[in-house]
Specification:
The chain has about 200 residues and is of the alpha+beta class. It contains 5 helices and 10 strands; from the N terminus they run βαβββααβββββαβα.
Length: about 200
C-alpha cells in the first residue's frame, strides 16, 4: 500500500531453479522481456501496468496493479449483466491494443485477467479488466516457438496438426487470442469453462 493508500501487487520470481542452485538466467531474461512488454502496454487502460521492478538476493519482482482474477470475480462476486458487458468490452479493447503493436498474448484465460472495481454508476461498481501475465507473448512474425500457454484455450485447428504435446510449437497468429477470448466470454456469461471436463487436447 502506497502513501496515497493505493494497493499494488508484487509478482516475485526466484532465479534459482537449477539442481545445483545456480542461477537460471533464462528466468531473468523472461522477466526482463515481460517488463519491456508491460512498459509498452501502459498505453492501454486494459493491460496491467508495471510501476517498478525490485531485486533482492535471488528474488526478482515487479510491482503491478492489484485486482482479483476474473475467475474469482465471476464465481464469487457474481457481477450484473451490465458489469459483465463492461468486462467483455474492456478485454476486447486490451486485446486490440496488443494486436495493434504486432504482439500475440498466447495465454488468455480468466486466471490471466484481473478486475479492478471502482465506484461508478449509482449503487453499482464499475469493473475494469486488465490482461496480465505476458510471459508467453510472441511477435506475430515470430518463427514457430515452444508453447508456454494453457492447452484448454488453444484453438482446435492449431492442436489437430500436432499430436506430440511435449514438442508442441506454435505460429503466433491473432486467431489464437481471439479463440481464447471467446472462451473467456462464454465463462463470463455462464460461469462455465467449455472444455474444462475433457480438455481441448482430448
Amino acid at each position: 500500500v502506497s502513501s496515497n493508500k493505493t494497493s499494488y501487487a508484487l509478482k516475485v520470481t526466484s532465479m534459482v531453479h537449477l539442481p545445483d542452485e545456480r542461477y537460471d538466467w533464462k528466468v531473468l531474461l523472461d522477466l526482463l522481456k515481460e517488463i519491456c512488454i508491460l512498459n509498452v502496454m501502459k498505453l492501454s487502460d486494459y493491460c496491467v501496468h508495471v510501476y517498478d521492478s525490485v531485486y533482492y538476493g535471488s528474488l526478482l519482482g515487479m510491482i503491478l496493479d492489484e485486482g482479483y482474477n476474473l475467475h474469482r470475480i465471476i464465481t464469487v462476486d457474481r457481477p450484473t449483466d451490465i458489469q459483465k458487458k463492461d468486462i467483455v468490452i474492456g478485454l476486447c479493447a486490451g486485446l486490440s491494443h496488443i494486436h495493434s503493436i504486432s504482439l500475440i498474448h498466447c495465454d488468455i484465460k480468466p486466471q490471466n485477467v484481473i478486475v479492478i472495481k471502482t465506484s461508478g454508476r449509482a449503487e453499482e461498481d464499475v469493473y475494469i479488466p486488465k490482461l496480465i501475465d505476458f510471459g508467453s507473448t510472441l511477435l506475430i512474425s515470430s518463427p514457430p516457438a515452444p508453447f508456454g500457454g494453457t492447452f484448454d484455450f488453444v484453438p482446435p485447428e492449431v492442436i489437430q496438426t500436432q499430436l506430440d504435446r511435449e514438442s508442441f510449437r506454435i505460429n503466433a497468429i491473432p486467431s489464437m487470442d481471439i479463440w481464447a477470448l471467446g472462451l473467456c466470454v462464454v465463462f463470463i456469461s455462464s460461469g462455465i469453462y467449455p472444455f474444462k471436463s475433457r480438455g481441448v487436447w482430448n
